[in-house]
Amino acid sequence: MTTFLLFLVAAMAALAIYQLILARPGMPLDEAKAALQGGSAVLIDIREPAEWTAGVAKQAALLPFSDLRAERAKWGAFLEQQKGKRLLLYCASGTRSGLAARRLRAEGFNAVNAGSLRDWDRAGWPICAPKRR
Q1: C-alpha dihedral over 80, 38, 114, 63, to 10 degrees?
Q2: Domains in the chain, ordered, with CATH?
Q3: Tell me, what DSSP letter sits at residue 99?
Q4: Which residues fall within 8 angstroms of residue 51, CB to CB, at 6 or more apart?
């Protein structure tokens, strides 16, 4: 029983560390903002549609993480259109955007975890209501 508990605690600690590493933005936000303003990058909000009602970062494409992991109904055409650009992904905490960036990099895209919506708000990037579709 003691060995099992030690294993469980070690596994939970490893998972927490892994998530902290994933949640860390892949580039400083001032560099990300400059890349967006210069047109060499595109900002992507990968939260789910219900989360967008709280506001989105200005200029962000709204592409849910669930679609990236499934049929890519929205992601497919978007990725084709954005070839050659750096993909700056954010979510609510930075964890999902870290997972998505890692997946896209494995597929050959220049994708970076750009942190969370809160990070963008703190950095002074405009947060607005999502555009109606």
Answers
A1: -40
A2: 2-128 (3.40.250.10)
A3: H
A4: 92
Q: What is the mean pLDDT of the chain?
A: 88
pTM, rounded to two decimals: 0.81
Residues ≥6 apart with Cβ < 8 Å to 67: 73, 74, 75
Look up residue 31 and give its two tokens: 């560099």
In tens, the pLDDT along 37-85 reads 999 999 999 999 999 999 999 999 999 999 999 999 999 999 999 999 9
Q: Which residues are CB-neighbours of 121 under 8 A, at least 6 positions away?
A: 57, 127
Residue 45 contacts residue 61 (beta carbons within 8 Å): yes
Q: Which residues contact 24 (CB under 8 A, 6 or more apart)?
A: 94, 98, 113, 115
110: left (phi over 0), alpha (psi -120 to 50) or beta: beta
Amino acid at 30: D
